[in-house]
Amino acid sequence: MLRDILLKTLHDQRRGLLAWSVSLLLLVAMYVALWPSIRDQPTMGQFLQNMPEAMRALFAASGADMSTPTGYVQVELLSFMGPMLLLIYAITTGAAGIAGEEDRHTLELLMANPVSRTRVVLEKFGALVVGTLLLALVAGLALVLEGRLAGLTLPAGNVAAAMLHMALLALVFGALAAAIGGLTGHGGASRAIPAVVAVVAYVLNGLAPVVSWLEPARKISPFFQYIGHDPLRNGVSAPAVLVALLTTVVLAAVAVVGFRRRDLAA
After folding, report:
1. What does the angle CA 111 – CA 117 – CA 119 come to, to the nearest 5 degrees?
2. 24 near 138, Cβ under 8 Å?
3. Of 134, 159, 197, 242, which one is least surrounded by beta carbons within 10 A?
């Protein structure tokens, strides 16, 4: 079992993944339960329109109508809370892959087995991918199935598209955490730097529509690739998926190269 790093990592994460899954189910259930009391409230739409433009750009999807299921889910789940939770999971898991093993002083035991450094990084990263996709799947299924109980009916295909883009967003930052872990072996830096970059990227994407000098840089934000084309309304964006995948692959390659070149005895 120890020699199969991917399965061993997923086995070690089983309780955490269960807790994350239950938390997502409960979070979606809360939003679903609130939907009947919000859909007929015209004041909610007025509240959004009366928000300062910068606040609306940051915390409410552009043009979202809270009286519709799509607009409600965009504002309440997809604009902030959903991606934030998935990013926390991906960054902490990406940082735990290599840097976490070093912090726990268990990397020597792992490397004492007949496994290459490349395999260690890739299988650790594989576990991150599996865990992130699993959580996105749980959130999507919860949204579709629980939503039907309260009339929060959404097209299953568009929900799947939104969850795919959210998972890719999380994987970009999880891969960044893995890359920093591979390069430095520092758990704190592996968690802190991706978190700071995520906040900057979020603010950049949110404020670019209302701050003209930020607009040219908006498309480099992973949050633009996540939600810029509105996947809950328009489905999957192939260019956005390709950009997110390439970014993730490059960062995973950096993690491999960084870990292979590092002197672990130093």
Report:
1. 105
2. yes
3. 242
